[in-house]
Amino acid sequence: MFTVTNEWNKGQTLMVGLFDEKEKKREVFRKIESLFGVDLRTYMETDDLSSHKNHIEKVLIPKNEGLVRIYFLGLGSSQNLGENNYRKMIGRLFKKIDSDHVLSTAILLESFTPDHWSKERCSLLIAEAMLTSTYRLPTFKTGKQTDVEDRELTIWTEEDSIIIHKSLEKGRALADGVNTARYLTHLPANVLTASEMAEFATTMAEDYDFELDVLGKEDMEELGMGALLAVNQGSVEPPKMIVLKYQGMEEWKDITALVGKGITYDTGGYSIKTKTGMLGMKGDMGGAAAVLGAMETIGQMKPKKNVIAVIPSTDNMISGNAFKPDDVITSMSGKTIEVLNTDAEGRLALADGVTYAQSKGADRIIDVATLTGGVVTALGSWMTGAMTNNEDFYKEIENVGKSVGEPIWLLPYNEDYKAQVRKSDIADLNNSPTRKAHAVMGGAFVGAFVEEVPWVHLDIAGTSVVEGAHDLGPKGPTGVMAKTLSGYIIS
Ligand code: BES
Ligand code: MN
Ligand code: ZN
């Protein structure tokens, strides 16, 4: 997929970046001029080969052997460019080239390297942007092939090829994680059942040598996972608690738990959703998808860290057996829960997930979930909502999110909010206090199962799916938080 070379290979389509800075532009033009025997001097003055952000210009240069295609991409000023903008501009370029059905491209790395950035960093971002922006979701349309042919990218640079290769592979590992999360989120619930998700995790465990544990219904009964079991009660599909262990350190200590909500379909249960509210609820395992995506990246990068991934998975259905509002259930922690709303099912599944992670020695916990409509109202599709019991731990995650292009916003979490989830005449907790601050209530409920360890809760109900295609991906699942989770582990 990647080739690194310091020589121009004539068969390829070439990508050239243009920054506003005159010196940089001149240098790039000189290189093109000497290589293809053309005169670009006039372009220095006109705006036709513009360095304006996002300006894409395709230029055809006839050469003895045929035609050389060059895509010039305006990158704006090299001085105040951020990595998120950089990713997006490059993503847009690859999408454009993709729509021209070009699969084999070369990129002049020096022309894409802003002042004070390393070529290593740039090549990582380029690989990541290429693979996320051009990713295609599978369809079930008959007679259509969804597998795309392999893309070839040649990095044309004077830099040491081994170093650049490594960076490209890191970019690929990150993109693979995002795309895996997208893929899983996209699959319909009749295809991706809890058992199928467990199968997927099994394959991943084989590929990357993870330790795997899939708890079935009987294991859950033995462990007293009454919260997850309650959600599953109305389903004909068996529940699964999927557990992956990655040991990158000599000793099994200092363990980070990644807990992902794996509700493969959320009808709301007896507190049933409306027909439009239900549509799209195949994506209610977006948290699980992010965790599995992160594990994919971790499996490829093999950091010296210890990680346990915990995915409580089931669908939330109705039937004569289903759990009901007013039921009182007992979670794995021993805490009892008054069910006020069967549609607040994610927090029930997560409660047992978080308790299980702690029983396995988790030293810190990050949970990820498409948990509440409240967070969609509050933050829309632009930021993931968070809660924490530890500001320092949260700051670390927030910073990783910022650097990978997945912004996170902290919601409040104090005694007033904690008190709301404890309000019940009949049990220790209730699963749905009021409509007030219900994004916070969801997190606060999960927080009630976290003992002494640092914990960050990430509510991706608004960010895991988007309504339209964007520079770095298709319409639909975004794979959000896969990079933040793996980034936290790797950094
Ligand atoms: N899976 C939903 C949350 C959701 C809503 C995800 C919209 C993606 C888009 C969750 O299980 C749910 O139903 N939450 C309820 C909670 C309420 C009953 C307290 C909600 O947000 O309305
Ligand atoms: Mn629900
Ligand atoms: Zn749900």
Your description of this structure?
This protein is α/β, with parallel strands linked by helices and 491 residues long. The chain folds into two domains: 2-158, 3-Layer(aba) Sandwich (Leucine Aminopeptidase, subunit E, domain 1); 178-490, 3-Layer(aba) Sandwich (Aminopeptidase). It has helices at residues 22-36, 41-45, 83-99, 119-133, 161-186, 194-208, 217-223, 226-232, 275-278, 286-301, 346-359, 373-379, 391-404, 415-421, 438-447, 482-490; strands spanning 2-5, 13-19, 56-63, 66-76, 104-108, 152-156, 211-215, 240-247, 255-260, 262-266, 306-316, 328-330, 336-338, 364-369, 384-388, 408-410, 429-430, 455-459, 465-466, 476-477. Strands 7, 8, 9, 10, 11, 14, 15, 16 and 18 form a nine-stranded mixed beta sheet that branches. It has a six-stranded mixed beta sheet with strand order 1-6-5-2-4-3, with helices on both faces. A three-stranded mixed beta sheet has the order 12-13-17. Strand 3 and strand 4 form a beta hairpin. It is elongated and about 85 Å long. The model has no long low-confidence stretch (mean pLDDT 96). Zinc ion binds at residues 263, 266, 284, 345-346.
CATH homologous superfamily annotation of the largest domain: Zn peptidases
| Biggest sheet details | 9 strands, mixed
Enumerate the distinct ligands.
ligand BES, manganese (II) ion, zinc ion
Can you tell me the CATH class of the largest domain?
Answer: Alpha Beta
Shape by Cα distribution: elongated
Number of helices: 16
What is the share of helical residues? Answer: 25-40%
Looking at the structure, the CATH topology of the largest domain is: Aminopeptidase
What class would the helix/strand composition place it in?
alpha/beta
pLDDT under 50 segments (min length 5)? none
- How large a portion of the residues is in β-strands, by DSSP E? 15-25%
* Mean pLDDT figure: 96
Number of domains: 2
* Rg, Cα atoms, Å: 25 Å
Indicate the CATH architecture of the largest domain: 3-Layer(aba) Sandwich
Distance between the termini: 26 Å
- How many β-strands, per DSSP? 20
